[in-house]
Amino acid sequence: MITLDFVPLWTLILGIAVFFYVLLDGFDLGVGILYGFGPDRTSRILMMNSISPVWDGNETWLILGSVGLLAAFPLAFAIFIPAVYFPILVMLLALIFRGVAFEFHFRDASHVTFWDRAFSFGSLIATFAQGIVLGAFIQGVDVDGRKFVGSSFDCFTPFSLFTGLALIFGYSLLGAGWLILKTEGELQARARRQGLWCFIAVLIAIVVISLWTPIMDSTIRQRWFSWPNIAYFSPIPIITLAIAVFEWRALLNERSEIAPFIGAIGLFFLSYIGIAVSLYPMIVPGHFTLWQAASSPDTQAFLVVGTLFLLPIILMYSAWSYWVFRGKVNADIGYH
């Protein structure tokens, strides 16, 4: 009897879910971070209105990714979640507080300053916590047999703290690109200036992490710098450099509105590919591959039927919501 291998399919599904979450919730978290630097009340209303129709739906991808990891790769979930319990708890609390602040901002005018700060700091803290989780994943966790044996505070390392800081600038770059696309006038010009500073920080972070990871892990070093791998993977840094040049020019070009957002997406995508190249086929770096951590083929087959039905629906309603609310945002009526 032939047994189908669903691991590559589930790897693709989870990869798509994580990337769409980083992209879509990333830009609205980035807008939230930049919201704290809004110069006046009108600007802040415009910034909030730019994401109000879509921000809630963006977190659908977080749910899909986390539930998919639990169902398709339960061993990885059981090992990794205890290792990053505190940053995940902080992230979820910050996302909840941010959501509450978003709603009460329009309904509790007497405390609007408090809700403004809550929205901005909630976005900042959630982003930083996500960066720590990413850094801990790349760096790896202590495992004995099939369980995590380290401390819940082991995830707080210089590397993970740096990735947390890097993600703040990365999401802010996405947020600036979104504001350039959705706003006009001085607010758009301000977002362009903020995007330039964030881009410089992101570029520095990409270089530092690209050097730090192979120094930290001999397997990653061998993957990237042994022959002929160095030839096979050389297009990744070359294309990243080309997209970086494109992004810099787009941010400087006052007539370019969509290109800064596209360039930021490109930088995230190439960074995502770089992480995948460094770690594949490991899902618990240094310990378990995707196949070793996967649930049974019958379980994966059962789950994939519903997922492949649900995934196109999520993609369609997400695309529809962005299409309906296309165009520039307006402080009075939302969109025009």
Describe the structure.
With 336 residues, this protein is mostly helical. It has one domain. Helix content is 76%, strand content 4%. It has 15 helices and 6 strands. The longest helix has 32 residues, at 185-216. It starts with 6 loop residues before the first helix and ends with a strand.
Question: Helix and strand layout, with pairings?
Answer:
Blueprint lengths: L6 H29 L5 H11 L3 H4 L1 H13 L1 H10 L1 H21 L6 H28 L3 E2 L2 E2 L9 H25 L2 H32 L1 H8 L3 H5 L1 H18 L6 H21 L2 E3 L3 E2 H4 L3 H28 L4 E2 L3 E2 L1
Antiparallel strand pairs: 1-2, 3-4, 5-6
How many β-strand runs?
6
What is the global morphology? globular
Class by helix and strand content? mainly alpha
**DSSP strand (E) fraction?**
under 5%
Features:
336 residues; mainly alpha; two-stranded antiparallel ribbon; 15 helices; 6 strands; globular
In short:
76% of the residues lie in helices and 4% in strands.
